[in-house]
Amino acid sequence: MTTLNSRIPEGPIKDKWTLYKDKINLVNPANKRNIDIIVIGTGLAGGSAAATLAELGYSVKAFAYQDSPRRAHSIAAQGGINASKNYMGDGDSNYRLFYDTVKGGDYRSREANVYRLAEVSGNIIDQCVAQGVPFARDYGGLLDNRSFGGVLVSRTFYAKGQTGQQLLLGAYSAMNRQIARGKIEMFNRHEMLDVVKIDGKARGIIARDLITGEIERHSAHAVVIATGGYGNVYFLSTNAMGSNATAAWKIHKKGAFFANPCFTQIHPTCIPRSGDYQSKLTLMSESLRNDGRIWVPAKIEDAQAIQQKKLKPIQIAEENRDYFLERRYPAFGNLVPRDVASRAAKERCDAGFGVNATGEAVYLDFAAAIKRYGTEQAKIHGINNASTEKITELGAAVIEEKYGNLFQMYEKIIDENPYKTPMMIYPATHYTMGGVWVDYNLMTTVPGLYCIGEANFSDHGANRLGASALMQGLADGYFVLPYTIGDYLADDIRTGKIKIDSPEFDEAEKSVKDQLNFFINNKGTHTVDYYHKRLGQVMWDKVGMARNEKGLKEAITEIQEIREDFWKNVKVPGSLNEFNQELEKAGRVADFLELGELFAKDALEREESCGGHFREEHITDDGEAKRDDANFAYVAAWEYTGKPSEAILHKEQLEFKDIELKTRSYK
Amino acid sequence: MNLTLKIWRQKGPQDKGRMVEYKVTDISEHMSFLEMMDVLNESLVAKDEEPIAFDHDCREGICGMCSLQINGEAHGPDRGITTCQLHMRMFKDGDTIYIEPFRANAFPVIKDLVVDRMAFERIQQAGGYISVNTSGNTQDANSIPISKHNADLSMDAASCIGCGACVASCKNSSAMLFVAAKVSQFALLPQGKVEAKDRVKNMVMQMDLEGFGNCTNTGACEIECPKGISIENIARLNREYLAATI
User: Fold this and answer.
1) Considering only Cβ atoms within 10 Å of each terminal Cβ, which end of chain A, N or C, has fewer?
2) Contacts with A412 from chain B: Cβ below 8 Å
3) CB–CB of B144 and A274 under 8 A?
């Protein structure tokens, strides 16, 4: 049986990474070109890893399901990227970034990994600037920073509201340079459908060419999974339509442990759903909470009148509004961390105070900010006794400069003017902190199989702070994996090319083809989306923002039933050897139907509330999350045994040597 | 609302292709255009017909995967958005909507509404980068001040999403706006100046090899660009190119 060894190096936390790098095995440049590495996924983590590995001299094959690496969903990240540069001189340091991240994650992440992340964060900014990433600058020509939730310093670098896009295009350009040199062979519109293990080591993959439908074998000395999170298990999320867990789940079934699946981030500020046809949810950046005030009507009759469209929000007097975040958390107010804000909104909506037809929305109101900025502007411009209209006009201009693109996006979707009436928002699934278990080297429990970026579990604990996902993706890809993978590959310099005509490849290819054939020949009655939506509904209702034992047990049974039904009655049109989007979706949903069950099982087993995981049985007297460090300060790493319900739990005990375990309080 | 859709169907690159008529009913004005397409596809699968293939992914206007020529316009009738951000309230009950793939010789059809934009990839590979290694051992990020003005212009150019609307809108199927956006992003930054001449020559050469047409300054690309990339970038590209070749 595999046992967990996190391989955390010895030494003080500040020196671990440096000392470790000094002793790590290296591969001679002449040997690197004889070593093949497969990278699955080309977002920030996969794209940066592929480029860096190719620069180092390895022969890289990279795979993306989209038509270009530039389409990966990292591109949609809005706000920014954290780095402990301390350019603002406000007391930032590696330690402070490390501390904020561990605390923000509610003390469920691995100290050594998080410290390393903080340590390399500054390099990321240097690297990206050298690549031509156009970060925002001040008038002196230096880089600008802004502040994000849950921290007391300004350490967030940004490029308008498109930071993820610019960072991804940076990694993409580094990839393009290597593609042009022949060091990366790029496989666009390809999907990995299984990993191939030979003598216990990851030695290749089975992939499908999504244009021709051809099944291909690719061998390598190591395989890197960088395929992002599994938020689409909820069907509706802020993820891209194609974002999926198939690569992560397939490797789980081949021996990679899956850690903390129940740690999922529900982001508080998303545009609410409007109907059954809804295909995805759109995020409104966290930065809006700097100026927006969140409220619902204080009186239930007002809420009902609003739900029936008999009353407008601007008709509700100030004293009849409930600014529930400011009421419950006076110290942090509207800027509490994401998990706390989401739960508070849900609590009000569950009590009947929601503000749209479905009752699942709260207001994010900029009227006070417009008035405040307008008054300030009037003063700056020397306008005495400015009229209300003038103040509103001046204030709206300030808001437009800060958040114009988000307001425009909102207006396009909802068809209401957020300058004049409050935005409606509701929490939505956004990011998954859980993922494939990895050691300090970012290697999974399968030798030669690595997992980086959102797809792994290691850095964000039970809740991720804003602007930290981009940091982790690039840290793993540019600065961590390229070192650690050499330690493993140093033993492979005499192995030679891995052959693809082995029985192991035969077997993996056969199982992939069998599943695809099944889908095409099943001729069932329901579409793939029908099952995906059913799964999503169960996940949201019973494994969503608040969870309890009864609901989780029901969820497990219901997911099993949906899965059984799926394998009997799913209908996939078309044929194998063609561009077939329904066939692609079928395989992904099949995996979500298993992952969802493990997710619920993990949530059931974790009898505490922490970060994004909120168990209704474990709350403090005033309704806050109650952590149980004595019994649950561990990573739950699940081993697949044939059925998700029978997965075996392995515990990696988390040790906190450099940070004291404390209750998070934002009151 | 009830709508008539006339949609381009094409089995594969070799197939000739044709417009096929579909009816959709009870479409909510709050749906996005692609959600309307989802509804149609679900109904086609239910009737054992083959669903319509179309590219899409992020559905929030940033990945550049979605395309579609809707009633003759790239990304449809609204401005400053991609097809996935288009909402059905832009149409009215009883409308007939024509839906076609982005058309250009350099963008061959893969199936139905899906086109192959690998030509864009090859142009980027020809020079759309700054040749620094990703070691992180570069100079400190603040060691080269860059004027806010240029940094902002560079960012505006860099916001290109590579969707191909510029090519699809151009009567010459020119890719000048796409190439200009990348060339400008780097031309405006000191980091990009070192290899600026090679970059512009190589990218333009690849653009020509791919069979895109020439630019005759009609400006359609700028109007249809979902990210509002300015045609001034084409002027900058021409300047850079001229400077590099004389």
Assistant:
1) N
2) 78, 81, 85, 87
3) no
Residue A98 shares a structural domain with residue A118: yes
- CB distance from A71 to chain B under 8 Å? yes
Q: Does the beta carbon of A52 lie under 8 angstroms from any beta carbon of chain B? A: yes
What is the tens place of the pLDDT at every residue in B223-235?
999 999 999 999 9
Q: What is the mean pLDDT of chain A?
A: 95
Q: B residues 42-101 near A, CB within 8 Å?
A: 42, 44-46, 48-51, 53, 55-65, 78, 80-81, 85, 87, 89
Q: Cβ of B114 under 8 Å from any chain A Cβ?
A: yes
User: Once rounded to an integer, what is the mean pLDDT over residues A174-198?
Assistant: 98
Residues counted in chain A: 667
What whole-number distance in Å separates Cα of residue B120 and Cα of residue B238?
Answer: 19
Q: Tokens at residue A55, please?
A: 């620069």
HSE (side-chain half, CA atoms, 13 Å) at A263: 31
For residue A408, the chain B residues in CB contact (below 8 A) are: 80
Confidence check on the interface: ipTM exceeds 0.90, yes or no: yes
Q: Is B30 on the interface with A (CB under 8 A)?
A: yes
Catalytic annotation, pick one of A70, A338, A343, A615: A338
Does residue A40 contact residue A226 with C-beta atoms inside 8 Å?
A: yes
Residue A475 belongs to what domain range? 16-265+430-492
Domain count along chain B = 2
Whole-angstrom Cα distance, residue A629 to residue A55? 44
> Do B170 and B60 fall into the same domain?
no
Q: According to the model, what pLDDT value does residue B137 have? A: 79
What pLDDT does A376 receive? 94
Alpha-carbon separation of residue A431 from A76, A97, A237 (angstroms):
12, 20, 9
A361 touches chain B (CB under 8 A): no
Q: Are residues B124 and B80 in the same domain?
A: no
Domain presence at residue A461: yes
Residue B203 and residue B161 share a domain: yes
Between CA A258 and CA A263, with CA A259 as vertex, the angle to 5 degrees is 125
Question: A546-550, A660-664, B108-112: lowest mean pLDDT where?
Answer: A660-664
The residue-averaged pLDDT of A125-139 equals 95
- Report how far apart the first and last C-alpha atoms of chain B are (Å, whole number): 59
Is the confidence at residue A123, as pLDDT, over 70?
A: yes
**Average pLDDT score over residue span A620-631:** 92
Q: Is A338 a catalytic residue?
A: yes
Let me know if residue B96 belongs to a domain.
Answer: yes
B129 and A131: CB-CB below 8 Å?
Answer: yes
Is there a single domain that holds both residue A284 and residue A180?
Answer: no
Half-sphere exposure (Cβ direction) of B104: Cα atoms closer than 13 Å: 31
Place of tokens 């003038």: A390
Q: Is B130 on the interface with A (CB under 8 A)?
A: yes
Which CATH number goes with the domain that contains A480?
3.50.50.60
The domain containing residue B180 runs over which residues?
A: 117-132+144-245
pLDDT tens by residue, B118-158: 999 999 999 999 999 987 778 999 999 999 999 999 999 99
CA A392 to CA A386: how far, in whole Å?
10
Contact A469, A226 (CB under 8 A): no
Going by pLDDT thresholds of 50, 70 and 90, the confidence category of residue A436 is very high
Percentage of chain A modeled with pLDDT above 70? 100
Residues B210 and B227 in one domain: yes
Domain count, chain A: 2
Instruction: Round to whole Å and give the CA distance between A351 and A340.
Output: 17
Three-state DSSP class for residue A198: strand
pLDDT for A150 beyond 80: no
> Is B87 in contact with A137 (Cβ distance < 8 A)?
no
Reported as a single tens digit per residue, the pLDDT across A56-72 is 999 999 999 999 999 99
The mean pLDDT of A341-363, rounded to a whole number, is: 95
Query: Do A250 and A157 share a structural domain?
Result: yes
Is B35 in the A-facing interface, judged by CB distances under 8 Å? yes
Query: Given A55, A172, A277, which is nearest B133 (Cβ)?
Result: A55
User: Can you give the CATH number for the domain in which B213 is found?
Assistant: 1.10.1060.10
CB-based contact A140 B145, cutoff 8 Å: yes
Q: Is residue B138 part of a domain?
A: no
pLDDT number for residue A289: 86
- For residues B21 and B128, membership in a common domain is answered with no
The answer to whether the Cβ–Cβ distance between B87 and A413 falls below 8 Å is yes
